[in-house]
Design goal:
Helices cover 20% and strands 24% of the residues. The chain has 454 residues and is α/β, with parallel strands linked by helices. The protein has 2 domains: 272 residues, Alpha/Beta hydrolase fold, catalytic domain (Rossmann fold), CATH 3.40.50; 82 residues, Immunoglobulin-like. The strands form 8 sheets. A 6-stranded parallel β-sheet has the order 7-1-8-9-12-17, with helices on both faces. Helix 4 packs across helix 5. The longest helix has 25 residues. The two termini are 40 Å apart.
């Protein structure tokens, strides 16, 4: 049930197909099946401060049984995220409400729209089977409903998948016939070749200022099969003057190995790829010490006498550019952070143009800004925020306390030696904050930051 919707403008083009929204990791509310208590996606955003720094709030999120069907009887997904959420390394995720509300008035009838909530802790292969069943059921119901109202009875399905949701669609493509009735797949920041943030979640790197929250996440992440689905499959490890793929031995003997498989083609596939944000793309490992880099080599490092040169291919802050693309798919490249792709007005407007098959609309735009900020800071501790990109010169960077909803600070930015603009900020009150960089027109670039004592 999507809820109340605003009326259609009389001239609005409509999508007569069945539309399914598939969220990313962290993107579904999870509840205890026995008690109904919310385990993830709480309205009380102060929960994230306590959960990552103290207490036992995360214990029920750990996967306890290797059989997903058994685990699914203990924890249930309820709906797509309605409130912001935060996880170290992966930073924050904006709620899906703006996307769902706009789609509800874009489809021919609200009954054509459904959301697929799933337990994002479990393997993509397990959730893909559930997704295939959900799409088949939803499409059947919509066709019957549309036929009864003398609407388009030959409707097909359109899938809008954010982040890990696109991996479910990829796995669903391996199920014979699962995509036969799908007209189009729109993926938003899907890590088809993985993300180095998943490596950082599993392997301790250099000591940082927040060992407790990140240590708690690593313990949790090692129980989550979904994190292994996010591991990079492209050559990303610097070794002996070249790049090689990541191996299970690079991570830990207790982490099962994974295998990269050919990526199947998806029907009518459009990749929305976040750009302009500082994104890890390669790594080095020295005696177990993990170091991540925001570049890949441009030259062959094994050529004798060649001077190594490196290129920052950018990304959305979580998924690097070429990991979020698939060969043969149409691409659109907004400047936006991973967790805000599905809530950005520019992206939502573009999705509407795609599903209504209205190609004459304006090109996907937005501010050309890169936003760099830490994911966690201590109260009162000064930290650096940096803006890059062509529109950074006139951009404004502000911080919103998501608990109160009020703007609490604006960064004073000055030009730096590398062509960006840098400022120093202090946030005094523990809590979850939204960092917003606005300028150059279009949607602002959004990230989240947790202010915590440890």
């Amino acid at each position: 049930m999507i809820g109340a919707t605003r009326p259609h403008p009389t001239t609005a083009p409509l999508c007569h197909d069945a539309v399914i929204v598939v969220p990313g990791i962290m993107g579904s509310e999870l509840v205890n099946a026995a008690t109904g208590s919310v385990l993830w996606g709480l309205a009380d955003l102060g929960w994230y401060v306590s959960a990552w720094c103290a207490g036992r709030s995360l214990d029920e999120l750990a996967v306890r049984d290797p059989d997903p069907a058994v685990e699914a009887r203990r924890v249930k997904p309820r709906r797509l995220l309605r409130f912001p959420a935060f996880m170290p390394f992966l930073a924050g995720l904006e709620p899906y409400t703006p996307l769902l509300e706009e789609l509800a008035v874009t489809v021919a009838h609200p009954a054509a729209l459904t959301e697929f909530a799933y337990d994002w802790r479990l393997p993509a292969t397990y959730n893909a089977e559930l997704l295939a069943q959900a799409i088949s059921t939803h499409l059947t119901h919509w066709r019957r409903f549309a036929s009864s109202r003398r609407q388009h009875g030959a409707a097909r399905a359109v899938i809008i998948a954010h982040s890990m949701g696109g991996l479910l669609v990829r796995e669903m493509a391996r199920i014979p016939g699962a995509l036969d009735d799908v007209r189009s797949v729109i993926t938003l920041g899907t890590p088809f070749q993985g993300t180095l943030d998943a490596v950082e979640m599993l392997v301790p790197g250099r000591p940082g200022p927040f060992p407790l929250p990140k240590g708690r996440l690593r313990r949790l992440a090692r129980t989550l099969p979904a994190v292994r689905d996010l591991l990079p499959t492209y050559p990303c490890v610097h070794a002996g003057g070249r790049l090689r793929p990541l191996t299970a031995g690079d991570l830990d003997a207790d982490v099962p190995a994974w295998t990269a498989q050919p990526l199947p083609r998806l029907p009518g596939h459009v990749c929305v790829v976040g750009m302009g944000q500082p994104t890890y793309q390669s790594l080095t490992i020295y005696d177990g010490d993990l170091r991540l880099h925001r570049h890949l080599p441009e030259t062959d490092l094994q050529v004798p006498g060649a001077q190594p040169s490196y290129v920052d291919y950018s990304g959305d802050g979580t998924v690097y550019r070429y990991s979020a693309q698939q060969s043969g798919a149409e691409r659109h490249l907004p400047n936006q952070a991973h967790g805000a792709l599905a809530s950005s007005k520019d992206v939502i407007d573009h999705i509407v143009r795609l599903i209504t098959e209205r190609p004459d609309g304006p090109a996907l735009g937005g501010a050309r800004i890169g936003l760099e900020a830490p994911d966690m800071v201590r109260p009162g501790e000064p930290f650096k925020v940096r803006l890059t990109g062509p529109d950074a010169v006139a951009a404004i960077c502000s911080f919103v306390d998501l608990t109160s909803g009020g703007t609490v600070a604006a960064a004073t930015l000055r030009g730096d030696l590398e062509g960006g603009r840098t400022g120093i900020v202090r946030l005094m009150r523990p809590g979850l904050y939204r960092v917003k960089a606005a300028g150059g027109g279009g949607s602002p670039v959004l990230r989240m930051l947790l202010v915590a004592t440890r």
